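FAQ
Q: What does a multi-component entry look like?
A: The components come first, one per line:
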Amino acid sequence: MTARQYDGLNDGLNDGLNDDLNDDLNDVTNDVTATLRFFMEADRLKGVERKNFLSDGSRRENTAEHSWHLGIAAMIMAPFASEPVDIATAVCMALVHDIVEIDAGDTFAYSQSEDELASKEAREIAAADRLFGLLPAAAGERFRALWDEYERGDTPEARYVMAVDRMAPMLLNTAEGGSTWREFGITRDRVIARNGPHIEPALPAVWAVALAGLDAATAAGHVAAD
Amino acid sequence: MTARQYDGLNDGLNDGLNDDLNDDLNDVTNDVTATLRFFMEADRLKGVERKNFLSDGSRRENTAEHSWHLGIAAMIMAPFASEPVDIATAVCMALVHDIVEIDAGDTFAYSQSEDELASKEAREIAAADRLFGLLPAAAGERFRALWDEYERGDTPEARYVMAVDRMAPMLLNTAEGGSTWREFGITRDRVIARNGPHIEPALPAVWAVALAGLDAATAAGHVAAD
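Then the predicted structure of the entire assembly, as tokens:
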């Protein structure tokens, strides 16, 4: 939404509510406007491109649809989790945890750029400050708390969401023939080193299937052994 | 994921687990395999194209990223809802409610095709049977119940999710200049008739802003008045 279009919304809103203006209504109006501004800003996550492809290989995935897929994963993977998880918290965390990429961009899971990795945390904190700061205070604090919890990784839900966040691209890469692994020279050993420590402890039976798929992909020549 | 690749996963899995085979483990293995099969099938929702464009007008939206956006909306719009809603249920419903489009396709909100509208329900029920039937029983029943509840529209959560489901494309259309409305000759009156009955009762203050935006778009010539 352009600034001009926001002005149009705001002008129209003020005109439409002139008859009923009072402080309470102004508070609600301000919160609605802030919430919608965040909602429209969030739309930009659909334009953040990730490295991995969809399972049919047709194009690279964007972060918004990836986040939806993780929300679904959080709903269905709980029976295989190694510790009890609150599914509602995990689903919301999955939806929120990558919103900072609107400002900070996607950092490739296998990045070896020291500059990129060194600046990632600072860029993402600045993004969280700006983006979650658009929301009314209560919602902004909830989103920030979910994002902080995910980043800290110190709760069952954070470990569970991190596991499905690593599982998803590994399965997509396996399904479509390992394009991204070959494009960036990622070997089977590196796939295991990057993903195993997150997936195996949290979702051991899922890791067994993912690893079997990786071995089949290795045998098929879709990923180099080492 | 192709059948061949699934066979690879399954072969690898059976090889890897031969040492520990027993009935309990087979049950878990079957559930993991079924869950992952659904997860990979769900990936296809990213390829279902909707009619409306993203807010920057760069391309049409797909149903997976739309569903993510609704999940976010369900997290942040509750303070403006006209009746109390269980946010966790609403978020999960938002993520699940359009999965049937993998088989049934997206039906345009303003469709006037009698054939399309008449067949929509049957196509979507068949899709729900097949897709949710891929999941282990407990998860499949949960997804089906959420979808049924949304389709019935008879709970606060279903009305709330329907409201944000109508709000989202209305705001995106307004933001990017009404391309879809002009492409299909949708007038301001029809936008109100289609969306108002869902948004206004559930989210009245949000409807006021959306309507003001529509009026601004009408004044700017992005949508015809009637």
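Q: Is there any commentary attached?
A: Sometimes. For this entry: Confidence is low (pLDDT under 50) at residues 1-8, 10-21 of chain A.
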